[in-house]
From TrEMBL:
Name of the encoding gene: gcvP
The reaction(s) this protein catalyses: N(6)-[(R)-lipoyl]-L-lysyl-[glycine-cleavage complex H protein] + glycine + H(+) = N(6)-[(R)-S(8)-aminomethyldihydrolipoyl]-L-lysyl-[glycine-cleavage complex H protein] + CO2
Subunit structure: The glycine cleavage system is composed of four proteins: P, T, L and H.
Keywords: Oxidoreductase, Pyridoxal phosphate
A GO MF label: pyridoxal phosphate binding
Listed GO CC annotations: cytosol; glycine cleavage complex
UniProt protein name: Glycine dehydrogenase (decarboxylating)
Recorded superkingdom: Bacteria
UniProt family annotation: Belongs to the GcvP family.
Organism of provenance: Microbacterium mitrae
Cofactors (names): pyridoxal 5'-phosphate
Amino acid sequence: MSVTIFADRHIGTTSATQAVMLEAVGITAEAGERPLDALMRRAVPSSIYASRGTSAALPEAASEAEALAELRELASRNTVNKAMIGLGYYGTLTPSVIQRNVLENPSWYTAYTPYQPEISQGRLEALINFQTMVSELTGMATANASMLDESSAAAEGMLLARRASKVTSPVFAVDAGAFPQTKALLATRAAAVGIELVEVDLARGEALPEALFGVFVQYPAASGLVWNPKVVIEQVHAAGGLAVVSADLLSLTLLASPGSLGADVAVGTTQRFGVPMGFGGPHAGYMAVRSGLERQLPGRLVGVSQDASGHPAYRLSLQTREQHIRREKATSNICTAQVLLAVMASMYAVYHGPTGLSAIATRTAQMASQLAKSLVAGGVEIAHESFFDTVTVVVPQRAAAIVKAAHAGGYLLHLVDEDTVSVSTDETTTLEDLAAVAGFFGVSAPGAFGLAALEIGKLPEELRRTDDFLTHPVFNVHHSETAMMRYLKQLADRDYALDRGMIPLGSCTMKLNAATEMAAVTWPEFAGIHPFAPVSDVEGYLDLVTQLEGWLADVTGYDAVSLQPNAGSQGELAGLLAIRGYHLANGDTGRDVCLIPSSAHGTNAASAVLAGMKVVVVATTESGDVDLDDLRTKIAANADTLSALMITYPSTHGVYEQDVLEITAAVHAAGGQVYIDGANLNALLGYSRFGDLGGDVSHLNLHKTFAIPHGGGGPGVGPVAAKAHLAPFLPSHPLAQRAEHAGGFVFEGGPVSAAPYGSSGVLPISWAYVRMMGAAGLRDATAAAVLSANYVAARLRDYYPVLYSGEGGLVAHECILDLRPLKDDTGVTVDDVAKRLIDYGFHAPTMSFPVAGTLMVEPTESEDIAEIDRFIDAMIKIHDEAQAVKAVVWPADDNPLVNAPHTAVSVISGEWAHAYTRDEAVYPVASIIRTKYWPPVRRIDQAFGDRNLVCACPPIEAFADLG
């Protein structure tokens, strides 16, 4: 009996349909040549084309069952001990209704960043719930829609303080009580941009520097100490600086909020709100600011606006695509968020409500208090009496032995130093756990060691929370599982995700996220591991990391890979920091110029600035290639200061540049390094390698080429890969389990993420993808994706000009359709076409990037010919509709295009007074009658939302007339 290989499940087109598509593109194979290779041989420049895949490290493709069995074996080599280490990572109970209906639901995990808000109202509501939750718990005016993790949020807070403060001093004070991973990351980021960090023991009253632009406070401290930072904050304000407070969100149900203490910025993590530890991620960090700083917020911000009928509607506000608009002047290089995890955390708050969260926090504090009380009664000293969930215990010369004994007994405690151990309680802590832990310190649990004896420790009275929070109905009506299940279903029904149809977003690669790839994410052996667990507990994880690093190095032609960056933007930053570190180590302190083509991804320029580089823009030609003459001119003008060139290959314009080897050679000849942006690796994989193109370092997007779901705008993983000479400067981490990933100095491998291996919890997805595809499958996926893009271009070229193509008229994995002639001819805009596609049952392609007035289409390898043809037919029909507008069959101000999208309410309410019929509005083709997706709102007024900025849950009355 034949067995279907996984690649045949993943790739949507078959050999038969590929033959039809190749004929449409005009490709004929030579004798003995595979048809897909014939296409790639013509599309990819001969100077870089590899006729055979380079895959010495990749094993043969495994079946789905075999891959799961291997993952089970890797998982079995992880030990899930009871983690009481703390340091920002805690045990939590994910409500089953959230795990099943969000984390394991493709309606949530296959959605894209909500650039098309009309078809993203469900996840936008979930995110505005998240923002409301964060802003109210922190006492701040505005929160964004999540950050990548706590430590990088702290770094963004530091940079915000520098921007907003008028103080010229480069000094930023850092609390001695901050988490060690946060201190290390702040050091990496500060050194790159000339910020001077000064560590101050704030809780002990150590004096602040005389001049400073800000301060970072950990609240409660890493040691667990709860102290009042209000005086410190006032002192910083008096000096003209800003206060950034990293606060434990659960503790804020009991403790005074950072906002009430005068903080300007609050940062932290929402991990303990139902999101598993996952060996460090992914988790939704948070960031909130006081009134007046909302326009300084990095990342995504969801706001309330109104649609064409005046009904309230959600959309991304202000910074929607800041990096693409402002480039090197952007305030941050972060272009995404941790949406899926933010949704989980927000729904945890919705499900438990303010009373439930307070109860969880109270019980957590009671457990810590009882442990401390028992230890003191047994003659053991504790470091301080004021704490929330972490007890620091003083055990002279016994700390290591106690931690070792606890580990042997199934518990992970934090070894602070040879005399000190800290123990953190959480939602999962039991009385049995307390008794066991007390025993490791040589204390027998008293007879009264029971729930009735629990009491909250001595929290300072002036820090007790007295104000209400989460009063909006959404946090107070969905507490039964029935209500929660239905709420999640209602939100999912308002969205468009891959489970509905194709999302042809150019540059974003919305491919299949196979169920088998996702299976291991929720296994306890992967989900329940603390990122700072001892090496003996995580052998399976480390082997998975090592295998994946090796595979990625092989397929990219590099020598070393770090999986630590938890987004493409962080991978970019890590790669540029490696380049700068290399130059500094060689004594080339003046090499700080980064050349970037004008067509580059917007994050490139922002990342270069954050790495301490100066951006010089290189022109592109009319064909979309790098202008070689301008490149040579810019190299000559910056010969002594050239640090790097950042290019994307294939280019951001969706073509394979013929002169890439000449480009990289010119940079190397001038002493620079070449950074190849790996965003478009899915058009090259198996046919050429970045390292063979002259690349020195690249970031990859595991959430694009390697199948990690986008999750509505995150999680992502952006590994950085490099040649051997840059390997010592890749990210390290002070708490990493393996020596090659530990320690590190500034510009010699400092961390860029909070956890040693970044968002490790989703690495099994990409591991499974590569393991099941094998070298041949990865190669076929590349060719199938390129074929699909060229098929779209060939069939639509007569209706919409294809803006860029390579030699032979071929594109890479995406094509840019130029809608500017359509607008000039008919008045129909790119926005009209994008919104009208919703009526046809599609998510629009990428709008106006990299060229305004265009659509960038990327079908991916996962779509079958029927779905691709359905999209093509829709685009042709929309072109015909535009011609009807031109012919005044429909008025320019009243036609299906300008009024799109059409909601059910808009076509059934009142008299129909439009120049076109109801059927033409909502059933433009008969094939969608049975499968119609109904957008919940009409076209949204973007400008209204920016003029009237509201970024928290609107009152329930606002939706009264919508039923």
